[in-house]
Design brief:
Elements: E1 2-4, E2 19-21, E3 27-31, E4 41-43, E5 51-54, H1 57-61, E6 77-79
Parallel strand pairs: 1-3, 2-4, 3-5, 5-6
C-alpha cells in the first residue's frame, strides 16, 4: 500500500479497538501524511512476518502506539526508514513532481 501526499489523513480505520486481518499486507509506504498518527492493530496468519514500513523519520517518531491495550501492536510493523540526511521537514512544500 502506498499513501502519498495525504496531509489530512488521520487514520486507516474508524474506531480505537479495531483489529484488521491483513494476511497479504507486506509493505506500507507513507510520504507526506503528517496527520496520520495511528496505524491499525493487525491480526496476521504469520505473526513472525511484520509489515515493512517506509516513511519519513519525523512521521515515524510521532506515531502513537496503543501499547497498553495491545503490546504486540508495534511489533506488527518493521520500519525501513530513509537515512537521516534524506528526511524531509513536516512542512516541506512540494511544488512539482517528476514522473
Amino acid at each position: 500500500m502506498h499513501l502519498q501526499e495525504l496531509p489530512l489523513l488521520k487514520h486507516l480505520c474508524e474506531g480505537d479497538d479495531i483489529v484488521m486481518s491483513a494476511a497479504a499486507w507486506k509493505e506500507l509506504h507513507v510520504r507526506g501524511c503528517w496527520s496520520l498518527r495511528h496505524l491499525p492493530c493487525l491480526h496476521q496468519q504469520h505473526p513472525s512476518q511484520a509489515v515493512e514500513m517506509s516513511g519519513e523519520r519525523a512521521w515515524w517518531q510521532k506515531l502513537i502506539w496503543d501499547d497498553d491495550s495491545s503490546p504486540a501492536h508495534r511489533s506488527c510493523y518493521e520500519p525501513k526508514l530513509s537515512p537521516t540526511f534524506a528526511s524531509f521537514n513536516e512542512r516541506a512544500l512540494v511544488t512539482s513532481y517528476l514522473r
